[in-house]
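Side project, low priority. Logging it here so it doesn't get lost.
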Amino acid sequence: MPAKTKPPTNNEKLLAWVEEMTTLCKPASVHWCDGSDAEYQVLCDFMVKGGTFTPLNPKLRPGCYLARSHASDVARVEDRTFICAKTKEEAGPNNNWADAAEMRQKLLGFFNGSMAGRTLYVIPFAMGPLASPIAKVGIEITDSPYVVANMRIMTRMGRAVLDKLGASGGFIPCMHSVGAPLKPGQTDAPWPCEPDPQKKYIVHFPDDPSIWSYGSGYGGNALLGKKCLALRIASIVAQREGWLAEHMLILRLTSPQGKKHYIAAAFPSACGKTNLAMMQPTLPGWKVTCLGDDIAWIHVGKDGRFHAMNPETGFFGVAPGTSKHSNPNAMGTFTRNSIFTNVALTPDGDIWWEDMGVPPPAKAIDWEGKDWTPDCGRKAAHPNARFTAPAAQCPVIDPDWENPEGVPLDAILFGGRRATTIPLINEAFDWEHGVFLGSAAGSETTAAALGKAGILRRDPFAMLPFCGYNMGDYLGHWLSFAQRTDRAKLPKMFFVNWFRRSAEGKWLWPGYGDNSRVLKWVCERVEGAGKAVATPIGNVPAPDALDLTGLDMGADSLRELLAVDIAGWKHETGTIAGYYATFGSRLPDALKQKLETLSKGLG
């Protein structure tokens, strides 16, 4: 594509950095991205010509494209993700630590000449509305047009960001290369990347702060505004500046009477975050609008309340399992102007994946570009196949989703995939107890996530892969907000579990739109109403507290959903204590005390 080589900025620090990286990477050309529609279309056409993109049927999905990654480059690589803090203790047991000076030298070697034969793209982007008090400007350098196209959907990108930066503004440098230089005359691969997993590096330098990513072109490894900046680096910056960067959805629940409540929720992977964020309530008259499905930046507003905003502008969601039953609003979001990665291509030029809610095609092209039929014994879509879609296209996007001040949070939910022990919902007694519930969050893994299903993985605040510093210090930061504002203005905290099973292995709760019944009780508790029973683990709904109108649920199932399994919880406290021990002296005393109180309460 024709490169825009003239820098549209006079920011000396930015110009010097781009020049330094250009000298290091030795690209064939340099292009400063403006984020325009015309630029996006040129990039898409360029990728179609190179085989990276396949245009979908414009009558079925206008403006949509399919990409297929290399088989070695299909997901986040946690074991190749590093935090180069000053000391290993600062990074914590939750992160892979490496010495910053040694890692810089290693990366300089990898990046030397890494963009030969390619275009170096300069992407100015902002996380959060430009007028937000906690918005951050990043500059990503990449040699991947796929990254540019996705970043345009996922972030505020282009000239307005450079205008905000001005001549002297600071930014977070984000350096990325797929690690596949081209020799003169060499034909490019449709998905260039470093095929050796041990040569992929996703590295964070907290003290700059900066991000360097090498070898992968996929998702959070390469779209550096997402997990790298908006969570790992932002969590560190947030601790320093007195706010929070969280792996949370944000939704608004409106009652039939027009009363609005804003709720954030932190769930690990495969626990229904996107589904909840865009839920269609089954309770008549109740309405959910979505502000974000993955990341929330939270600060204490002028009114002393928690205010949350979504720093992103798009959804990068898991495709398999998304259907008109599980998430009709997501299905409505990616009808146009979206990018699909590693899903199947149907003969009529549309996309398909497992559990899409429509019959499989008689034949298709699978995510690896091979012929596929329903009886061939292979998945048509990769389990981590993704859609990238503009948030503004969501049928239930909230009118305030780009409010620079964010929206005032009434409640925060934690959750996980637990077949036993954890009830449908319990409410924290106070702020410290809420942080305790979040710190003890865990989820049973799915085969797609870690290879072994049913293994309990502790994932505090759903931030285990994303907290950029010692998790013990992170939990202390959360506790500190009880002293930063009036306790009465803090959001109430709850723990939910949509995944409880009976002794026969059947789901006890229908989930999806029926989760609105649980959220209604949350709102009632926020309002000082809603019947509850105090138990050692928190307040649980009284037997008649949940609105089950129209739901065919027996009393035995409801009793089991809300029961406090004493034996199970005694075992739970033991595993929590074992997990807490990994943080040593950095674990806040308040959490040790809450665990001790729980243990005594269980008898």
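Brief comment: Residues 466 and 570 are 29 Å apart (CA to CA).
Revisit when time allows.
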